[in-house]
Write a structure and sequence with these properties.
6 strands; 6 helices; Homing Intron 3 (I-Ppo) Encoded Endonuclease, Chain A
Length: 150
């Protein structure tokens, strides 16, 4: 029995489940821990959704319009910068940043931050009263921290 060598494209598409037009095309091969398809080409692992969009310029991200990491439908993928990728994530509510009082590292409450902003004493005195450093107090007053608060 002779071994028939498949080219990369044939091997790739053999691992894709194309359900129907307009739907996600799910990668059926190996996946990384975050659910993105992994495909081996020339001895190196590449992300399946990036391979579909080749060539991808250096420093460019491949984003999913469908938000399904295992989707390789070219109509669901688009190119963007890292900034575009983060904006897309935030816009769709997929960010998991915990801000304000919900952040376990926070030493202040929203009420305290509002009081700090109104306090006219020196940064050092305010910081001492709240058990934080004066750099943080300055950042709060300049709205570099807790900026979502009115």
């Amino acid at each position: 029995m002779a071994f028939i060598e498949q080219n990369d494209e044939d091997r790739f598409w053999a691992k894709v489940n194309i359900k129907s037009s307009g739907k996600c095309w799910e990668w059926q091969g190996a996946k990384n821990k975050t659910g993105y398809g992994v495909f081996r080409v020339d001895g190196k692992n590449v992300l399946a959704h990036r391979w579909v969009c080749e060539p991808v310029p250096e420093g460019t991200c491949v984003l999913h319009a469908c938000d399904s990491p295992s989707c390789v439908n070219p109509y669901h993928l688009f190119l963007g910068s890292q900034k575009d990728k983060v904006a897309n994530m935030v816009e769709k509510g997929r960010d998991n940043w915990v801000t304000g009082e919900r952040n376990g590292q926070s030493k202040l409450t929203e009420e305290q931050v509002r009081a700090i902003r109104k306090d006219n004493r020196s940064l050092r005195k305010i910081a001492s009263d709240y058990g934080v450093n004066d750099t943080l107090i300055g950042m709060i007053k300049r709205r570099e921290r807790w900026s979502y608060l009115p």
